[in-house]
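Standup notes, structure subgroup. Blocker cleared on the calcium ion input:
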Amino acid sequence: MRLPVTIIILILSFLSCKEKREGKFEHNKEVDLARVPDSLELVANTFLKGDFNGDNIIDFASQVKNKNNQKNGILIIHNSENQETYVFGAGKEVDNMTDLKWIEIFETIPKGEIVAPELVDEETGDLLGPDESQNFKLTGDGIYMSVTETHGGGIIFWNGKKYQWYHIE
Ligand SMILES: [Ca+2]
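Run returned:
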């Protein structure tokens, strides 16, 4: 009795595999790293998985180094049909920085958390605490980065249309 059941299960799983393979795009598939721009190389052991754009499909992020200018940054690749890629730093400006070589802590912040940027006194440069008027409840997982010693850093998060940066202390 066991054998026929096993065979049926095998046939069913074969059929479902076939369906997926013929489908236009497999959402369970890993992001295709051939999408990494030629100018960038991935920094080892800095990969992050998370649903950064909030569509319930796990995306890819990593620290990267630009081979042309040696500047570091962040690469995000959406696990979607078009595998959209986004680069911050590595020569591209984000919050007046083009090099994110200072990152030591690099991790995800779960969607649903509320984030706010640090309020900085424009004249004195004093840190005044989180600006709660800009509170944002993350709709996708955020990417948090900072320097270990000073805790200065930021968050990159999807605001529904594009990625946004908040300075965090
Ligand atoms: Ca996603």
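Discussed briefly. Residues 18-25 have pLDDT under 50 and may be disordered.
Next: hand off to the docking folks.
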